[in-house]
Amino acid sequence: MLQPADYHMHTPLCRHASGEPVEYARQAASLGLLQIGFSDHSPMERDDFDEWRMRMDQLDEYVAKVQIARQAVPGLKIRLALEVDYLPGQEAWIRNLASRHPWDYLIGSVHYITDTWDVDNPAKISQWRQHEAHVVWKMYFERLAQAADSGLFDIIGHADLPKKFGIRPVMDCRPLYEPFLKAAALRGCAVELNTAGLRKDCREIYPSRELLEMARGHGVNITFGSDAHQPSEVGMNFVEARDLALSVGYTHWLEFQGRRATPQAL
């Protein structure tokens, strides 16, 4: 059974991953994957913004590393991409990044609900104790809707990331999801099934079945990603992710090349 492409993988340039792109590519080939995509954390306008992404002067090095992987594993389709943090006011910077190389897709992710709080950062988990869970989730999904509506991204990454530590609101979250999904549908922005959630405290793929069912109802397309930070995580839990997609009614995933999408059967 052919698995969909793994479109979410990192490199050591982000400062919290290990293994060179060649190693990820060889692992993918050994698993029988036909296509992967590297989407490491993009630079910010300021290199000192945080400590978990490549610097601006490493962007060309990143592209070169992916090209080396393409040459080393020629039987594997390897796409070139970035995972870009969306913060309001940074749109011009994101457009600048988009123009610098021939990217195959851009993943838009929200990690920061303020300029200083990245809600998935274990070093800042104490901040969760200072806020009601539903307030954090509301802020997050408001920003995620902005990201989708910006038109800057092809894919939205780990769409319910605030559940990472298992902290969830008691309230019904469906009204929070609705504006985001409407924006994604309007802009033709896919949502990824990110299996890294199974390796976190939440023990659940991003997004949840409930959110994915709503995405399907809005006609939002999907991609798949392991969010691999080491070669052994490439393609991890893709059987479960594919089964989840099929169980809520998806029949296709999107392949990207040159920022153009082509549906492929699951």
Please give a structural write-up:
- The chain is an alpha/beta fold.
- It has one domain (12-265): Metal-dependent hydrolases (TIM Barrel, Alpha-Beta Barrel).
- 31% of the residues lie in helices and 17% in strands.
- The protein has helices at 21-30, 59-72, 91-98, 133-149, 174-187, 209-217, 238-247, and strands spanning 35-41, 77-85, 105-109, 155-156, 190-194, 222-225, 252-257, 260-265.
- The strands form two sheets. The protein has a six-stranded parallel β-sheet.
- Helix 4 links the parallel strand 3 and strand 4 (155-156).
- Helix 1 runs parallel beside helix 2 (59-72) and helix 5 (174-187) crosses helix 6.
- The longest helix is centred in the middle third of the chain and has 17 residues, at 133-149.
Descriptive tags:
6-stranded parallel sheet, alpha/beta, 266 residues, TIM Barrel, two-stranded antiparallel ribbon
Largest β-sheet summary: 6 strands, parallel
How many DSSP-defined strands?
8
- What is the CATH superfamily? Metal-dependent hydrolases
Strand content: 15-25%
What's the helix and strand layout?
Layout (H helix, E strand, L loop, with lengths): L20 H10 L4 E7 L17 H14 L4 E9 L5 H8 L6 E5 L23 H17 L5 E2 L17 H14 L2 E5 L14 H9 L4 E4 L12 H10 L4 E6 L2 E6 L1
Parallel strand pairs: 1-2, 2-3, 3-4, 4-5, 5-6
Antiparallel strand pairs: 7-8
Helix pairs in contact: 1-2, 4-5, 5-6
Short recap of the structure:
With 266 residues, the protein is an alpha/beta fold. Helices cover 31% and strands 17% of the residues. The longest helix has 17 residues, at 133-149.
